[in-house]
Amino acid sequence: MKEFKHFINGEYVASASGKTFENRCPVDNSLIGPVHEAGEVEVDAAVRAAKAALSGPWSKLTQAQRTEMLNKVADRINERFDEFLEAECLDTGKPRSIASHIDIPRGAANFKAFSETLANHPTEGFRMDTPDGKGALNVGHRTPKGVIAVISPWNLPLLLMTFKVGPALACGNTVVVKPSEETPATTTLLGEVMNECGVPAGVFNVVHGFGPNSAGEFLTTHPLVNAITFTGETRTGEAIMRAASVGLRNISMECGGKNPGIVFADCDIEKAVEGTMRSAFVNCGQVCLGTERVYVERPIFEKFLSRMKEEVAKLRLGRPEDKEANFGPLVSLEHRDKVKYYYDLAREEGATIEIGGGIPDMGAELNDGAWIEPTIWTGLSDEARVIREEIFGPCCHIRPFDTEEEVIKLANDTDYGLACAIWTENSARAVRVAEQMEVGLAWVNSWFLRDLRTAFGGAKQSGIGREGGVHGLEFYTELKNICIKL
């Protein structure tokens, strides 16, 4: 059994109150270990350590030295790959085959990608005329924003946490991370790596706990926090916005989604099926960019639906270490209750259950885990709650459409605007439709293809701000203009 303590000022510390909560494995609901819950004392200590580190050895490093140090962090994660893999799979239950190709290597790569991208980005400079004819020179200069609060989610715990911590540290900030209470392991383990790589104490801090009246609230309301970056559901994002308004702290938020997939009759249907399968069912559907609404042009609707059902039937449920398994449990029994509620609601709303729709019998050893069946529905109205509300599970509704204009209207008819996937071999149509989608990311003939140099974020209720590449500079630094009279 493992114990998960806070990581504050370079040391692992227990909660002064002695309060802990259980971290359980979603595969079989077995106890992984106790997690210390942070109170105001621990959060204050972490924030003050981060504040102090801003003027310590960390601030004396050159950009090249910071880059070299963060590259060491990436290398050390990969050297301890098996430990991170075990921790991630215990917390999430996801198959090792998935976590070993996505979560761990891409989580490590975030440190290198962002430190090297941001290190080489120029600022602006302008020469201006003055009445005396001698002129002036304006030079842009970026400085770290300060203490960054990182609130990270449970679906891709290491990857999405380092997607924020990587650029924050590359820009010279310090961080206090609150990982999801469901998945504390890899964020906690990263503290060891930071120490091993010589990252100064206080630069990277971790506090565990929940949201209201716990670590999340205490962190986002702390007056010494300069900015807050968050990934999670929209309702939590709204609470964080209210907290950030006190003191006018900057925020970057990637929130919920109800993402559409649009499949035109001229697509390569096998590519469209493969891509839509991944977008709806990879990571048990627990991907913010995943597809829950699929619109298929009527001439190929029946064929596409048939192929999707064939592929869903091939999904292999099993333990993370099962080499044949490509489908794990949901992250927790609580989340399974939420997803199962929508499965039952779909029946009530008149859905045709094409495949799945319930809880599988996994046998005596696994039936206490958070397992649920991958599910496809048809026949729901466009106003059904299952069509309009984010489920965040392994499910999708497939609906036919007749015209381009119709499907654009249907796809945009949502409060969310995170991502979409468009499947067509007509390049003019691809561009035309993508330009009209009210989203932050539009994929054409692909899904989850991410260049870390590009902007990442959502429209409408799916988020505020953009991260990724140089766009992170706008959030993680303050840009000042230095005007020099010549």
From TrEMBL:
Superkingdom, taxonomy of origin: Bacteria
InterPro entries linked to this entry: Ald_DH/histidinol_DH (IPR016161), Ald_DH_C (IPR016163), Ald_DH_CS_CYS (IPR016160), Ald_DH_CS_GLU (IPR029510), Ald_DH_N (IPR016162), Aldehyde_DH_dom (IPR015590), OHmuconic_semiald_DH (IPR017628)
Keyword field contains NAD: yes
GO molecular function: oxidoreductase activity, acting on the aldehyde or oxo group of donors, NAD or NADP as acceptor
Matching SUPFAM superfamilies: ALDH-like
Ranges in a coiled coil: none
Gene3D superfamilies given in the database record: Aldehyde Dehydrogenase, Chain A, domain 1, Aldehyde Dehydrogenase, Chain A, domain 2
Residue stretches making up the Aldehyde dehydrogenase domain: 12-482
Active site (UniProt): E254
Keywords (A to Z) from UniProt: NAD, Oxidoreductase
Enzyme Commission number: 1.2.1.85
Signal peptide (residue range): none
Family the entry assigns: Belongs to the aldehyde dehydrogenase family.
This protein's name: 2-hydroxymuconic semialdehyde dehydrogenase
Natural source organism: Marinobacterium marinum
